[in-house]
Amino acid sequence: MAEEADEPDTREKFVLWSKSDKHSREGTVLDIDTGVLRRNHVLVLRSPQAEITLALGNTAAALMDFAQKGETRNDPLLAACSDAEQSIASGDFETTRDLGVPDVIATIENPALRRLALVECFLAKASPDDPEHPGYPAGDPDGRGGEFEPKDETEQEKERIIRELKSENIRREFFVASRAVLIAIGSLPVDAVPGPDVASVAATLIEIAHAAAEIHSDDVEMDLAIDFIKNGPFDLATLQVDDTKESFSSFDAFKKVFPLIGELSKRFGSFPGIEYHHMVEQGGENEKNFAPEQLHNTDNIVMLPKMIHQVVNGEYSKQSPEDPKLTVREWLQKQPYEKQREHAITTLQKLGILKK
Amino acid sequence: MSDAGRGKSALRRALEEGPQEPVLLERATLFEQLQDAHAKNDKKKMLEIGQKLAANTKDIQNIRRKLRNAMVTAVEEARRVVDPQTRVRKLLDAFELCAKTQIIANDHFGDLETQNIAVQQYGAVVEELDTIPPGRIVLATFLDHSDDGVRVIAAAQLYFRDLMIEKVVPILKHADERSVGAVGWTAFQAFHMHPVPAKT
């Protein structure tokens, strides 16, 4: 427990990061109104046997990253905490005191816990009554109690924060979904040990060289996809090949009129890995249930980077949680055209490709 | 994207965002080393790395196999229990395991096949629970579970039968709006593949 803290209120919350096993009690990270963990806060409980870290909300995820890796994600609050941490590390307590950080924080040896203590300290400063740094009150309907309230251009600031959080989430969503690439890569044989003869070594080397080329190609595709996500979300019209509704009797006929290369350089600059994606899918039941013109038209077909296209297809290949005997794709193909289209659009929105 | 970020391979950056599995990080390192050796046409090194990659592939396959076997065994064992009360308890344990495995398979490994087996296995558990009174409502025990995956997957299964709507809809809405990966997609699919009941 932080016996030397100057202010009783400040000392109270350090109980959470105490090394003592006696202090497994609730601290200020718990909402006093509801008794639950406040959104965007991190609760750490320690004992000699275990350390438990609990977090809720996107900002809490950012706090975890800051605590564990020191990453600030360009967040002003975390950047301020990082500055304070550096001041502590260099023994510059004058600066930390100016920032309102009590000296006792420097006694926390574990870097992750020390960073969390700093964040909590800065959040605590963001009280509703603080004239310099007004904060949202406890019980704020949006769960922002304790966070700094933007002082200037409040609405714009709020929009910026929401935009950044969404963008961060979408990037993570894409990264999680694209992990399959790492397993899929590699036509590498499971047993890559060549036999004793020269021919066997040469054959293995050729396979390994193929794998290297494939890895390089996938890395390039991934970079393109990351840039695409970074620049998104897009209007549907931007991803469509043409703004006039034209229908075709087959996908081949569509591609003859709209070869990808020209469109790509016009629309996105150099994007060699772009593919066409049917929002209401071609093939399967849809091929039987809908006329070709309903599937192969400029309204239904959009352009996506190859890797993003794989991720979208991956989502459609998952089993339906409601009916695990069917994949999402199979379930969708039993639905009316409009339902399929709506699902396709919301899927692209969830991946951060399409604007809501 | 920062220039510093550009220094790492895109695959590695994708791996370092979110849960980090040592075997996949090792794979990314081997991929980078292989590209380097390939660029230098260092055949000896390429063979060495090829062997390590093959071992790494086996490691990943073993992990996936263990995850699948654990689920299948848990569900089979639970189904074999004669006493209904004990069977429900065992089925709930199996459900929890399958839910956790789905998240690991999807978010940690990007392993679609194992994730699909997880969904099929917890689907089988729920089907079995529906035959034992009071039915799948017993999944309500997971609505306060500390693991997001277990909580949201249980909420979705209750939602599909319009059970405890007042409690499960907020759980699913929160996951749909805020969660990334399998948790978020489970909630998303629940809402988009099953209509919201009129009373909500």
Please characterize this protein's 3D structure.
The complex is a heterodimer of chains A (356) and B (200). Chain A is mostly helical and 356 residues long. Chain A folds into 3 domains: 8-149, no CATH class; 157-231; 236-350, no CATH class. Chain A has helices at 8-14, 58-69, 76-89, 93-98, 111-125, 154-177, 180-184, 198-231, 236-239, 251-257, 260-268, 284-289, 292-295, 306-316, 328-332, 337-350, and strands at residues 42-46, 51-55, 274-278, 301-305. Chain A has a two-stranded antiparallel sheet with strand order 1-2. A two-stranded antiparallel sheet of chain A has the order 3-4. Chain B has one domain (16-193). Chain B has 9 helices and no strands. Chain B has helices at 3-6, 10-16, 22-39, 43-80, 84-108, 112-129, 148-159, 165-178, 182-193. At the A-B interface, helix 6, helix 7, helix 8 and helix 16 of A face helix 2, helix 3, helix 4, helix 5 and helix 6 of B.
**Strand order across the largest sheet of chain A:** 1-2
Report the C-alpha radius of gyration of chain B, rounded: 21 Å
- Most strands sheet of chain A: 2 strands, antiparallel
Characterize the biggest β-sheet of chain B: none
Which structural class do you get from the secondary structure elements of chain A?
Answer: mainly alpha
Strand content of chain A: 5-15%
The helix/strand class of chain B is mainly alpha
Distance between the termini of chain A: 48 Å
Give helix and strand order of chain B, one letter per element, not per position. Answer: HHHHHHHHH
Helices of chain B, by number, come to: 9
What proportion of the residues of chain B is helical, as a percent range?
over 70%
